[in-house]
Amino acid sequence: MKTELIRAFLALDMPEQIKEGIFDLYQPFFRKDTPFLRWTKKENLHLTIKFLGDVTEQQITQISEIVRDLKPADEKYEFMVHNYGMFPPEMSPKVLWIGLKENDKLDRLVHEIEDRLSLLGFEKERRKFTPHITIGRLKIRNSFDLKLFEKIKTDLDKGFIRMTKESFFINSVTFYQSTLRSQGAVYTKMREF
Fold first, then answer.
1. Which residue of 1, 12, 70, 180 could cross-link 47, Cys pair, CB 3.0 to 4.6 Å?
2. Strand (E) positions, 46-172?
3. Known catalytic membership, residue 82
């Protein structure tokens, strides 16, 4: 009997008004003439704290127990939109993101989750945790794409300056299933802690 695997990740789900504000920043750039740029759908905006990859039902149960054990039920995490940028920051960027101010409580939680999941065989993230929300993915193929992206980036710069940067709270960690489809990933909430 084959074990069914589910592609999954742990994330913090944004309050709806924050999703709206972030989405409003880049929604004007949804265009058919930018096949090199895939924007994140508003309903998919989130802050990933651990990408898990393919997991079994047994692992889902184990991971859920770890998160429940580590995250106090009444714990809230305060955030503020801080900056935006690209990964990697130099030539050939692949990801556009909105950065959030670092949060010591969340940093501790992420570190503890990484430590505990490594005992289950999950690889620890080598990069420092940087709280961010992916807003788009790039695949620039030629100089025309690059020029069009530079124009979009200039307009994004102006929009980001005007964007409201109020603080907001998130009080739960969400276990998501990610289903890859030709029109983009579909995220399904499986559990909330």
1. 12
2. 46-55, 77-87, 95-100, 132-138, 167-170
3. no
